[in-house]
Structures are given as structure tokens and as C-alpha cells.
Amino acid sequence: MKRNQTVGRWGEQAAADYLSAKGYEIIARNVRTPYGEIDLIAQKDETVIFVEVKARTSKSLGPPEIAVTPRKQEHMLACAEHYAQQNEIDHWQIDVIAVEEVNRRTEVVHFENAI
To answer: Can you tell me the distance from the alpha carbon of 49 to that of 94, in angstroms, rounded to the nearest whole number?
Structure first.
């Protein structure tokens, strides 16, 4: 497995663990749509949350969330709209979770309703 894939899986697991600890139910992981992939789909109360996870193990490229470019945001919105329509979901939002390794600790920052 390539390093980026390993870091990505680590980040997705850290994000899923974080959400679960906050009372979210993880519904699905790595869901493919015609517009791209949704990293995590979670639910809390009546809202379905589509989660984009960005992970980094070094500060050299800046914080993980800066990788959510305007183009990436367009893809995330298209993915979420497609999935919501296909599954008749009325209440949903898109969150971004940034996962970073800092001093051998995993830090998670949750940007709710980011898009």
C-alpha cells in the first residue's frame, strides 16, 4: 500500500473514532459515486453527515484542511447531492475533519457544516 493510502486510512479511522466518541453513528466508509468518493457517512439525530477527511503526518505542507480546494468542494457537494437524492435523504450536511500527527499525538479538528 502506498504511503498516501496508509496515511489516508489512518486519518479516516481517527476521524471515525472521533465521531463515534461524540455520539455519531458511522453509516458507511469510502462510498463511491459518479462524482467521486465520500470518505465517511455518519448520522447524528436526524442529520446525515458526509465527511471529507484530510490527514497529514507532517506540518511541512501546512494544515490538512487547506487541501480542501474550491474544486474539491465542488466534488464533495456533487457527491453528497447524488447520494442524498439516491437515498431520499432530506437533512444532510458536509463536514471536514482534519487529522494531524503532532508530537506523536493525533490531533483532530472538526469543521461542521463546512460546505
So the answer is: 6
